[in-house]
Protein backbone atom coordinates (compact mmCIF):
# COMPACT_ATOMS: atom_id res chain seq x y z
CA UNK A 1 0.00 0.00 0.00
CA UNK A 2 1.28 3.45 -0.89
CA UNK A 3 0.31 6.39 1.32
CA UNK A 4 0.78 9.99 0.29
CA UNK A 5 3.38 11.25 2.72
CA UNK A 6 5.24 13.76 0.56
CA UNK A 7 4.75 15.78 -2.56
CA UNK A 8 8.33 15.91 -3.72
CA UNK A 9 10.67 18.75 -4.48
CA UNK A 10 8.65 20.17 -7.38
CA UNK A 11 5.59 20.60 -5.17
CA UNK A 12 7.63 22.44 -2.56
CA UNK A 13 9.23 24.63 -5.19
CA UNK A 14 5.84 25.39 -6.75
CA UNK A 15 4.29 26.87 -3.63
CA UNK A 16 7.50 28.67 -2.69
CA UNK A 17 7.78 30.35 -6.07
CA UNK A 18 4.20 31.61 -5.96
CA UNK A 19 4.52 32.85 -2.40
CA UNK A 20 7.59 34.78 -3.49
CA UNK A 21 5.49 36.31 -6.30
CA UNK A 22 7.95 34.93 -8.91
CA UNK A 23 5.33 32.61 -10.41
CA UNK A 24 7.35 31.14 -13.28
CA UNK A 25 5.34 29.50 -16.07
CA UNK A 26 6.50 26.00 -15.14
CA UNK A 27 4.90 26.39 -11.74
CA UNK A 28 1.94 28.72 -11.98
CA UNK A 29 0.81 28.44 -15.58
CA UNK A 30 0.44 31.10 -18.20
CA UNK A 31 -1.90 33.96 -18.96
CA UNK A 32 -4.67 31.53 -19.99
CA UNK A 33 -5.47 30.68 -16.37
CA UNK A 34 -8.73 32.18 -15.09
CA UNK A 35 -7.15 33.65 -11.93
CA UNK A 36 -3.69 34.68 -10.81
CA UNK A 37 -1.12 32.23 -9.46
CA UNK A 38 -1.09 33.98 -6.10
CA UNK A 39 -4.56 32.67 -5.20
CA UNK A 40 -5.93 29.30 -4.20
CA UNK A 41 -7.85 27.64 -6.99
CA UNK A 42 -11.62 27.29 -6.96
CA UNK A 43 -13.91 24.53 -8.19
CA UNK A 44 -14.47 26.54 -11.38
CA UNK A 45 -10.70 26.79 -11.94
CA UNK A 46 -10.34 23.02 -11.52
CA UNK A 47 -13.19 22.28 -13.95
CA UNK A 48 -11.71 24.72 -16.47
CA UNK A 49 -8.29 23.04 -16.31
CA UNK A 50 -9.83 19.55 -16.58
CA UNK A 51 -11.84 20.53 -19.66
CA UNK A 52 -8.68 21.95 -21.22
CA UNK A 53 -6.79 18.74 -20.37
CA UNK A 54 -9.50 16.55 -21.91
CA UNK A 55 -9.31 18.53 -25.15
CA UNK A 56 -5.52 18.08 -25.22
CA UNK A 57 -5.72 14.31 -24.63
CA UNK A 58 -8.22 13.97 -27.47
CA UNK A 59 -5.83 15.73 -29.87
CA UNK A 60 -2.51 14.11 -28.87
CA UNK A 61 -2.47 11.85 -25.81
CA UNK A 62 1.34 11.38 -25.49
CA UNK A 63 2.04 15.11 -25.87
CA UNK A 64 -0.73 15.96 -23.41
CA UNK A 65 0.59 13.52 -20.79
CA UNK A 66 4.08 14.99 -21.14
CA UNK A 67 2.68 18.50 -20.62
CA UNK A 68 0.75 17.36 -17.53
CA UNK A 69 3.85 15.74 -16.02
CA UNK A 70 6.07 18.77 -16.60
CA UNK A 71 3.38 21.35 -15.91
CA UNK A 72 4.17 23.25 -19.07
CA UNK A 73 1.72 25.02 -21.38
CA UNK A 74 -0.27 26.14 -18.33
CA UNK A 75 -1.09 22.67 -17.00
CA UNK A 76 0.14 23.53 -13.51
CA UNK A 77 -1.31 26.71 -12.12
CA UNK A 78 -2.05 28.00 -8.61
CA UNK A 79 -2.43 24.81 -6.54
CA UNK A 80 -3.87 22.85 -9.51
CA UNK A 81 -2.32 20.17 -11.68
CA UNK A 82 -3.60 17.46 -13.99
CA UNK A 83 -3.17 13.78 -13.13
CA UNK A 84 -4.01 10.78 -15.31
CA UNK A 85 -4.30 7.05 -14.67
CA UNK A 86 -3.85 4.68 -17.60
CA UNK A 87 -5.86 1.65 -18.64
CA UNK A 88 -3.51 -0.56 -16.61
CA UNK A 89 -4.37 1.40 -13.42
CA UNK A 90 -0.96 3.04 -13.16
CA UNK A 91 -0.31 6.76 -12.87
CA UNK A 92 0.70 8.04 -16.32
CA UNK A 93 0.78 11.72 -15.35
CA UNK A 94 1.44 13.36 -11.98
CA UNK A 95 3.81 16.17 -10.93
CA UNK A 96 5.40 13.96 -8.25
CA UNK A 97 7.84 11.66 -10.08
CA UNK A 98 7.72 9.21 -7.15
CA UNK A 99 4.08 8.46 -7.99
CA UNK A 100 4.63 7.86 -11.70
CA UNK A 101 3.93 4.24 -12.60
CA UNK A 102 2.42 3.46 -9.20
CA UNK A 103 -0.67 1.24 -9.11
CA UNK A 104 -3.31 3.88 -8.42
CA UNK A 105 -5.76 1.32 -6.99
CA UNK A 106 -3.41 0.95 -4.00
CA UNK A 107 -3.27 4.67 -3.22
CA UNK A 108 -5.16 5.75 -0.14
CA UNK A 109 -5.48 8.84 1.98
CA UNK A 110 -4.81 9.14 5.70
CA UNK A 111 -8.34 7.87 6.50
CA UNK A 112 -7.80 4.69 4.49
CA UNK A 113 -9.97 5.75 1.53
CA UNK A 114 -8.85 4.24 -1.79
CA UNK A 115 -9.74 7.39 -3.71
CA UNK A 116 -8.00 6.50 -6.98
CA UNK A 117 -9.82 3.16 -7.12
CA UNK A 118 -13.07 5.11 -6.77
CA UNK A 119 -12.00 7.36 -9.64
CA UNK A 120 -11.17 4.38 -11.86
CA UNK A 121 -14.40 2.57 -11.05
CA UNK A 122 -16.69 5.60 -11.44
CA UNK A 123 -15.23 7.68 -14.29
CA UNK A 124 -17.15 7.66 -17.58
CA UNK A 125 -16.30 9.38 -20.85
CA UNK A 126 -18.27 12.59 -21.35
CA UNK A 127 -19.20 12.87 -17.66
CA UNK A 128 -17.32 14.65 -14.88
CA UNK A 129 -17.59 13.15 -11.41
CA UNK A 130 -16.42 14.51 -8.06
CA UNK A 131 -14.29 12.49 -5.66
CA UNK A 132 -13.46 13.89 -2.22
CA UNK A 133 -10.53 12.71 -0.14
CA UNK A 134 -7.62 14.03 1.92
CA UNK A 135 -4.36 15.02 0.23
CA UNK A 136 -1.57 17.51 0.97
CA UNK A 137 -1.57 20.87 -0.77
CA UNK A 138 1.45 21.44 -3.01
CA UNK A 139 4.44 22.20 -0.80
CA UNK A 140 2.92 20.61 2.30
CA UNK A 141 2.98 17.16 3.86
CA UNK A 142 -0.22 17.61 5.87
CA UNK A 143 -3.31 16.04 4.28
CA UNK A 144 -6.35 18.33 4.00
CA UNK A 145 -9.73 18.02 2.28
CA UNK A 146 -9.50 17.89 -1.50
CA UNK A 147 -12.12 17.40 -4.21
CA UNK A 148 -11.12 16.24 -7.67
CA UNK A 149 -13.15 16.48 -10.85
CA UNK A 150 -12.50 13.31 -12.84
CA UNK A 151 -13.46 11.93 -16.25
CA UNK A 152 -12.45 9.17 -18.63
CA UNK A 153 -10.88 10.27 -21.94
CA UNK A 154 -9.42 7.81 -24.46
CA UNK A 155 -7.27 5.33 -22.47
CA UNK A 156 -6.95 7.62 -19.44
CA UNK A 157 -8.86 8.61 -16.34
CA UNK A 158 -7.82 12.22 -15.77
CA UNK A 159 -8.59 14.65 -13.02
CA UNK A 160 -7.87 18.01 -11.47
CA UNK A 161 -8.46 18.65 -7.77
CA UNK A 162 -8.90 21.72 -5.63
CA UNK A 163 -8.83 22.35 -1.89
CA UNK A 164 -12.22 23.67 -0.70
Describe the structure.
By secondary structure, the protein is an alpha+beta fold. The chain has a single domain, classed as 2-Layer Sandwich (Beta-Lactamase). The protein has helices spanning 9-19, 25-28, 43-59, 61-70, 115-122, and strands spanning 2-3, 76-77, 80-86, 91-93, 107-108, 129-136, 143-153, 156-162. The strands form 2 sheets. Strands 2, 3, 4, 6, 7 and 8 form a 6-stranded antiparallel beta sheet that branches. It has a two-stranded parallel ribbon with strand order 1-5. A hairpin with a 4-residue loop joins strand 3 (80-86) and strand 4. Helix 3 (43-59) runs antiparallel to helix 4. The longest helix has 17 residues, at 43-59. It is globular, with a radius of gyration of 14 Å.
Please describe the topology of this protein:
Layout: E1 2-3, H1 9-19, H2 25-28, H3 43-59, H4 61-70, E2 76-77, E3 80-86, E4 91-93, E5 107-108, H5 115-122, E6 129-136, E7 143-153, E8 156-162
Parallel strand pairs: 1-5
Antiparallel strand pairs: 2-3, 3-4, 3-8, 6-7, 7-8
Helix pairs in contact: 3-4
